[in-house]
Design brief:
Elements (H helix, E strand, L loop, with lengths): L1 H20 L5 H22 L8 H24 L5 H8 L2 H11 L6 H19 L8 H27 L5 H23 L10 H28 L2 H4 L2 H16 L6 H23 L1
Helix pairs in contact: 1-4, 1-9, 1-11, 2-3, 2-8, 2-9, 3-7, 3-8, 4-11, 5-7, 6-12
């Protein structure tokens, strides 16, 4: 339970750390640096412990998950909060279960009554949230940030389904470190090839502090707590973090960055999370 409380709070705060970091440097470069240092912690530890390396087809799974979960999902969501509020990014990030339902629908699976009701409720909640952002849709940067954030949730949904289908049979922490390392190389290669990176000496202290926070609390301690909670708690309890993270991000964002926290956003966020709860509940039963 302490691990779950840790995850529920600190993963909510990482949206704010990302928001602060991308104010002063390219978002994908920040994601690359964060993942590189996070990977180093995991890999050095397991090298010290002389843990067996992945074999054969396990590498294929690691490469695919690295691309889906860290290059695309984490990279694009980090990029997205450069243009939208951290709270809004967190709410969009929590909506990935809706994509899982849609993907399964295209695969020919029948939707239960509660899945449909949950999706409709979540859609209504999103409409309420965006009521206060209607004028912002006239801004190209805001629309781009929304597109990046929504795409990030879609790739996370594909990653989640692929993990369920092709989960590697070796240490999940070591796998996580390898996924981060591979994704950091891909992101470094992309930012270098496109000329969107800045010299390390030009990155201000504020961004380095954000990266340090994201590595320690986002990539290391909280991921360890997350996997520990998954291993020791029932699924219906361990998934509670997904509903608390956006609340933490919205409330702290309003205090730290003066992000909007209106009655409509509060009601819309609550309605959206309730709809997601119904969808998740149906998926767990199934």
């Amino acid at each position: 339970m302490l691990a779950l409380i840790w995850v529920s709070f600190f993963w909510g705060t990482t949206w704010l750390a990302s928001k602060e970091g991308v104010k002063h440097m390219p978002a994908l470069q920040l994601a690359a640096i964060r993942q590189f240092f996070g990977a180093a912690v995991y890999i050095f530890y397991f090298l010290y412990k002389k843990t067996d390396w992945p074999k054969g087809k396990q590498w294929k799974t690691i490469v695919i998950l690295s691309f889906l979960n860290f290059v695309l999902s984490n990279g694009l969501s980090t990029w997205g909060v450069k243009y939208i509020s951290s709270g809004l990014g967190a709410i969009i990030g929590a909506m990935f279960p809706l994509w899982i339902v849609v993907i399964n629908l295209f695969r020919g699976e029948r939707l239960s009554k509660w899945s449909i009701i949950g999706m409709l409720i979540s859609f209504g909640g999103v409409c309420l949230i965006f009521y206060d952002y209607l004028s912002d849709f006239l801004k190209p940067d805001f629309r781009f940030g929304i597109l990046l954030s929504v795409t990030a949730t879609l790739t996370w949904a594909f990653g989640s389904l692929y993990t369920k289908k092709k989960a590697a049979s070796f240490n999940p922490y070591f796998s996580l470190g390898l996924q981060m390392l591979l994704s950091s190389f891909l992101l470094f290669a992309y930012t270098g090839a496109t000329g969107t990176s800045v010299p390390l000496t030009e990155i201000p202290a504020a961004s380095w502090w954000s990266i340090a926070y994201l590595v320690v609390f986002g990539s290391v301690f909280t991921f360890i707590a997350f996997i520990y909670a998954l291993q020791h708690l029932p699924a219906e309890i361990s998934s509670v973090y997904a509903y608390i993270n956006p609340i933490v991000a919205v409330i702290l964002g309003s205090f730290i960055f003066d992000e909007p926290l209106t009655v409509m956003i509060a009601i819309g966020g609550t309605v959206t999370l309730f709809g997601l709860y119904l969808v998740n509940r149906t998926m767990r039963k199934k």
